[in-house]
Amino acid sequence: MTEATQLNSSTHLPHLLEMLQDTGLVLGSRAAPPRVSLMSPSLYDPFGPLEGLPGGILLGIGLHPAEPDTAGVIRAAAEAGFAAVVVKKLQQDIEHLAKVADDAGIALLVVDDDVRWRHLNALLDSALNASADAGSTVSPLGVGDLFALANAIAAMVGGATTIENLQEQVLAYSTLEDQPIDEDRRRGILGRQVPYLPENAGQYAAVFRSSGAVRIEGVRPAMDRLAIAVRAGKEPLGSIWVVDVDGDLDSDAEQALERAADIAALHMLRARSSHDLARQQRAELLRRLLEGGDDAVLVSEQLGLRHSGPFAVVAFQPEVGQAAETTLVRIADLVTTQCEAHGQGAQCVQVGPTIYAIFPAAAGPSLGSIEALARRLNDRARASLGVEMRAAAGPAVGTVPEISRSRHDADLVLLMLASDGSPGTYASAGEVRSRLTLLELAATFRKAPHLLSAAARRIKEYDADYGTGYALTLRTYLDCSRDSARTAAALSLHQNTLRYRLKRLRDLFGVDLDQPEDTLVLWLGLHVLELN
């Protein structure tokens, strides 16, 4: 290998760190940093041999600074030819590790504890790929801002270019003169959001299914496009779209677009990384606020929320089994973007598969607009992501400490919607207050079973043993205010059959419907057992 070839296949470590500034990755050792190979990082495997990669970067996943074995791994990595090893401080002093690295002739890199290894791997991979492209005579693209990159792509590929994120928001667009555009692009640039069209879902699916550039035929009068997904490793970040005016962009244009996608990934990862820690901290504060506690007011001050309401929590949840991890990320982004754009100061956070939105000033007419927003989000998730989603609104509350109660009721509404088996629906706590009360009673009776009507329990057990329907008959009869005609119609029975069943209930279980207190407790017990 010639000296020129060696230089083109590696980069100075300080240059790499400069590209990754504000991402939480810094140099921890003091010796002169070496050049690193433009190859994907290697992952440390404690159960396998350490395979050497000359000039490579080793991600020390699972290495603890306080463990004696960590120093040994650093020395072994140096002997295997690695140029750098990455560790997390984990709130430990790493001075002894820095000295070990200096003595062994390897660079020690330290990454913030909050940065995920998978994210760091993707970030380094894109940075190294971008460095390789920047040093290549084939791709002269430099690393400027996204608008400069869009202009570079437009000049190199030969068409007006837009760069989008996963929420189909336009992050950047080219501004070169004399490149024709159509109305779809014009609307997207003006609103910084791709206009919603019926063909969008199919087109984006084709782009993200492909590993390279894809030709997208425009629905007239829209022009054709050449598009590519932007990825960090296997993780999708967004997409690039180039207008193909005459449909004659060739294979060279495709290759140029594929090279540009690596550089765009670096930009998007760096932009996302610089805000990751702040987002994580904010998300943790929002989770604490939703859980409630004595520090709710203090947490609200850190979030910039005023102390007095009204506030309302709306919970969004996709159908179980429909949302893969990547899809759930896109759903969370969709909900967050739309909710924060809808209301002044609305804030969102994901907890498990549920995305919660806290709306301030949620009173009066604004509750109706929140419902309309929730229904639009359901429609959008179904159309663009193929996922059915439920939305449930908790009640408006007056103070910050009560936000957790609004979240609690929203969760109960979600539970109720799921038990009904009605996908893609919306309900508010105010609309189903009586059913929520029964759900709360069900929880109370589970904790204190002696409060439950003994007669109701015996009836349910008898039905389970003999396949009868006495519980349903009696519950429907009481629901219908003991109106025999309405009950018989609701159960599709003859009234004589209904009278016979009511007589059997008295004979078998000693049910006396002339006792108001007993009847009330029995009716509640039957409903609670049904909910359980």
From TrEMBL:
This is Helix-turn-helix domain-containing protein. Belongs to the CdaR family. It comes from Pseudarthrobacter quantipunctorum. Pfam families: GGDEF_2, HTH_30. Residues 300-414 form the CdaR GGDEF-like domain. Residues 473-528 form the PucR C-terminal helix-turn-helix domain. InterPro entries: CdaR-like_regulators (IPR051448), CdaR_GGDEF (IPR041522), PucR_C-HTH_dom (IPR025736), PucR_C-HTH_sf (IPR042070).
